[in-house]
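Feature request disguised as a bug: please show the residue count (290) next to Hsp33 family molecular chaperone HslO in the output. Example input:
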Amino acid sequence: MSNLRQRFYIENCPVRGEVVHLDEALQTILSQRSYPEAIKILIGEMLSATALLASTLKIKGQISLQIQAKGTLKWAMAECNHLGEVRALADFAEDPRFAEAHDSSTVLSTLEQPVLFINIEPEVGERYQGIVPLDKPTLAQCLMQYYDLSAQIPTHIVLASTKETSGGLLIQLLPRREDEYETIDEDLWPRLIMLTDTLKSEEITSLDPQEILFRLYHEEDVRLPEQESLRFACTCSQKKCVNALIQIGENAVKETLEVQNPIEMNCQFCNARYTFNAEEALSLFGKHLS
Ligand SMILES: [Zn+2]
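Example output, currently without the count:
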């Protein structure tokens, strides 16, 4: 088993869902910086959540979850694009409360004035930003509340993470056509939620998505399209660094060169290093060293 996303449908029912499992991709991300236990677990849950949410979009582009707060966790973000590429990063100060955790509630309970943003950035078209209050104990509960209030598609989400693997399940009750109301088993949705909530954190993080679906819904007629793979990848590039230098302007670049030549830009997500010597940096402004 590796980094996977499995979509599922229940035959003749307006229900669809996804199960994700991340291991190597999460380990790669967590190995790039030194995170305390509780933040590793938060990042794991955020990554699984973005991989689940990305699957509900029908666009080319990316979706990110971003927590901003005052307190010892300053921000944390996780991102997934339509190719199944994920990355994540967090910034924090030392806090003894981060030494141990079982789920995202440990970090969420320390946040001051927190906000969770859901950003959807299509390759073409308008960006969307949703704001999710972080006033429930866990990330999954906050996201479900968001769906309740804004999307109005009944959605149930479970998430779990260890410091090495993470996973989650999302199930949605889709709008029905008029003529479907009578033929649908009214107990279906409450039954599915009840079954989904029997899933233990250890099962979410250790079992294959298909095994999870079998355990939960073996009495339903579950259909499984092909699995998709997920992987760690970074979107940083030389070109983005060039744009950033142009953005800060010639004077700021000259000032930077006085203290740092060549200019070094390090990607926090993947530790890639981009360097620009004085000639390269100034040539961006159509100038050369005299
Ligand atoms: Zn990078």
